[in-house]
Amino acid sequence: MEIPSRLVEQAVEQFASLPGIGKRTALRLVMHLLNEPKETSLQFAHSISNMREQIRFCAQCHNICEDELCGICVNPKRDAQTICVVENIRDLIAIENTQQYSGVYHILGGNISPMDGIGPQDLNISSLIDRAEKNEAKEIILALSTTMEGDTTNFYLFRKLEAYCTNISTIARGVAIGDEIEYTDEVTLGKSILNRTLYNSSLSN
Fold it and tell me: Are 169 and 199 within 8 A, CB to CB?
């Protein structure tokens, strides 16, 4: 694709580096910004710059936030003793969109995957164990994707947490085997949260 401006080409390359954005789509986005009023384009760039400079991660659950703790962790209306363990922030957003869950979260930052060189030490597991050791949880919900990596992580977490929390549950299998949480429709995901089962029961199935 021949682009007559080096500056436009650089912008296209940046947009094309985003997931799901090809060169043609990137060019269309760049040309849209170029045709917008200058203030609009600068505000777009400024908002991204602000996000990168000011965004933080919650000291308790690792959610994105602008303060030490996120809005969910400091919300007095949330059940702070029910902790839902998710793989990433996108999964948290997906569960929040169901409006079926009123507890708090813990974001692992991924799943255990030896094939990809990701072990327990690479995830936010030690901080979850710390929360369980401090008796912060009356229930821990393992809401990880129903993939091989998700199931491996579920089993690892269960073994690590069972000494501190007797009520460890997993989402119901309304979420099909192999599905990722963030792509599951809200109705199915909401029912899976509501109809969760004890994790040790799933081991005998």
Answer: yes
Instruction: Please report, as a single letter, which amino acid is at residue 162.
Output: E
Q: What tokens does 84 get?
A: 């839902």
Residue 1 lies in a domain: no
Residue bearing tokens 């109809």: 195
Beta strands 168-170; 197-198: pairing state: antiparallel
Is there a domain that residue 36 lies in? yes
CB 113 within 8 A of CB 149: yes
For residues 129 and 38, membership in a common domain is answered with no
Prediction pTM value: 0.78
Q: Are 16 and 3 in contact (CB under 8 A)?
A: no
Q: Which segments of 87-147 are extended strands (E)?
A: 103-107, 139-142
Mean pLDDT in consecutive groups of 10 residues from the start of the chain, 205 residues: 86 94 95 94 94 94 95 96 95 92 96 93 96 89 89 94 90 57 67 72 56
- Tell me: do 102 and 172 sit in the same domain: yes
Residues 81 and 167: their CA atoms lie apart, in Å, by 11
The encoded tokens of residue 197 equal 């089962």
